[in-house]
Amino acid sequence: MDAFKAYDVRGLVGESLTAESAEAVGAAFVDVLGLSGQTVLVGRDMRPSSPEFADAFARGAAARGGRVELLGLISTDELYFACGVRDAAGVVFTASHNPAQYNGMKMAKAGAVPVSADTGLYDIRDTAMQYLASGLPDAVEGGSVSEVDVLADYAAYLRSLVDLSGIRPLKVVVDAGNGMGGLTTPAVLGDTLLPGLPLKIVPMYFELDGTFPNHPANPLEPENLRDLQAGVLEHGADLGLAFDGDADRCFVIDERGAPVTPSAITALVARREIARAQAAGEATPVVIHNLITSRAVPELVEAEGGRAVVTRVGHSFIKAVMAAEQAVFGGEHSAHYYFRDFFNADTGMLAAMHVLAALGEQQKPLSELAAEFNPYFASGEINSEVADKAGATAAVVQHFTGNGDRFGKVSLDTMDGTTIAAEDGSWWFNLRPSNTEPFLRYNGEAAGHDTMESIRNTVLDIVRSQP
Questions:
Q1: Are the beta carbons of 10 and 95 closer than 8 angstroms?
Q2: pLDDT truncated to tens, each residue of the chain (467 aa)?
Q3: In the annotation, is 96 catalytic?
Q4: Rg from Cα positions in the chain
Q5: Exactly one of 21, 49, 50, 96 is catalytic; which is it?
Q6: Pairwise CA distance, residues 203 & 239, whole Å
Q7: Which residues, 6+ apart, have CB-to-CB distance to 422 below 8 Å?
Q8: Is 195 left (phi over 0), alpha (psi -120 to 50) or beta?
Q9: Which of 60, 66, 202, 317 has its CA 20 to 30 A from that of 333?
Q10: What's the pTM value of the predicted model, to 2 decimals?
């Protein structure tokens, strides 16, 4: 089962993933996690293959004694909510931002604790493979399948965390990319299930369509934001929001049509969450960020009286450190935002609500508000295809550490890839090898634009000159 990755399951429909394999995984999910006689939550996104896969998983889980509750169409953060409030393990069938021919599974234990390679995911894979090879075990008594709708409770819970009822009126263009944001946005920010808010929502691509007829549901790629940027300008909106396919990530566009960096959003939300925790009597609230988030984030956290903790890239690392540190909030450069009040899980919608609250509680436009949290110049993530990733990285390290005072004094860190930083704080960059592709991923930042470009070009020239 090559669809099993380190953090989730994702592969081509009909090849890596079939209804037969989904049923086997459902049975293995119950057996490996010891869920016989317990509630098992099963949700799905809008992809054409998702209903069949969810039903097959439910059959397998129920056959092994799981009391399956079918959640129907849900976003990934709806699964985390349901696992948290119902104290039950679950799965959502989704391939997030991947094209229509893909599908996958994101799994969580009771309390929304992630299931990853280190916490049972590969054991589920291996058990499912045994069941596919030799047949499913005999069914046990006690299994069942029923249906539950959690959308209204999810919406009410989010509204209980951020009160938007008293903000100034805002016009918001939302691009759901034909993904699950088309279901959750009206429920949380609109008036379909709850009283209306001072928000005028201008919908874009809210129709649930897993073939993605308008553009890929991956806002990390700049070309997929162009419709939203144009929509913000056309409607004279205060801001724009873009969700990925399973709506667990949110990207923000200001009133000028310019993207607001996820690092700036992390800093903005961190300030609000630190203040809220301090008001509740917490002396030094902890905020988590990954190592390629802007240095503006830890600087702001410390200035606000919090404590910043850096971690590796990836949601399983962030969630583990969130729990260990009892952190109030965490953010990643990829627009994943984690909240202690949301079971240490990531939710793009709650982050969007914090942005709406911060903007609506004062009179500045978003571009001016966000500028405070974005003092540095960033390269963005740049991929280079390299056969010998280790050799290319070594060549870069040699260049920056073996040239006397040309680059000044530098530090070297290997927490996640290789990070080289000027000791005076004027610049840094990170090179991380992809685990699945022949890519080296570059991220860099500097206090000056020219310095950022100079360091970026130097590193990329070295990397791309390697055989």
A1: yes
A2: 788 887 789 999 999 999 999 999 999 999 999 999 999 999 999 999 999 999 999 999 999 999 999 999 999 999 999 999 999 999 999 999 899 999 999 999 999 999 988 899 999 999 999 999 999 999 999 999 999 999 999 999 999 999 999 999 999 999 999 999 999 999 999 999 999 999 999 999 999 999 999 999 999 899 999 999 999 999 999 999 999 999 999 999 999 999 999 999 999 999 999 999 999 999 999 999 999 999 999 999 999 999 999 998 877 788 889 999 999 999 998 899 999 999 999 999 999 999 999 999 999 999 999 999 999 999 988 999 998 999 999 999 999 988 656 778 899 999 999 999 999 999 999 999 986 678 999 999 999 999 999 999 999 999 999 87
A3: yes
A4: 23
A5: 96
A6: 13
A7: 407, 408, 409, 410, 428
A8: beta
A9: 202
A10: 0.94
Query: Residue 371 contacts by C-beta under 8 Å, 6 or more apart in sequence?
Result: none
Residue 315 structure tokens:
């949601």
The first and second tokens of residue 371, run together, are 């500028």
Residues 290 and 373: their CA atoms lie apart, in Å, by 17
Closest by alpha carbon to 221, among 174, 177, 178, 254?
Answer: 177
> What does the block give as tokens for 88?
């039950």
Tokens 């994943």 belong to 336
Element (H, E) at 134: helix 121-134
Q: Can you give the length of the chain in residues?
A: 467
Contact 100, 51 (CB under 8 A): no
Sheet with 337-339, strands from edge to edge, namely 307-311, 286-290, 329-331, 337-339, 345-346
Instruction: Say how far apart CA 130 and CA 47 lie, in whole Å.
Output: 28
Number of H helices, E strands in the chain: 14, 22
Instruction: Scan for tokens 């039903």, then name that residue.
Output: 55
| Closest among 337, 311, 331 to 248, alpha carbons compared | 337
Helix axis angle, 151-161 to 76-85, nearest 10°? 80
Q: Would the CA dihedral through 197, 202, 207, 213 be positive or negative?
A: negative
Query: Crossing angle, helix 151-161 and helix 348-360, to 10 degrees?
Result: 40
pLDDT score recorded for residue 404: 58
- Using CA atoms, how far apart are residues 195 and 307, in angstroms rounded to an integer? 37
Query: How far apart, in Å, are the Cα atoms of 77 and each of 81, 93, 235, 243, 307?
Result: 6, 12, 29, 12, 26
Main-chain phi, psi angles of 270, to 5 degrees: -60, -45
> Is 379:454 a contact under the CB 8 Å cutoff?
no
Residue with tokens 């009160």: 163
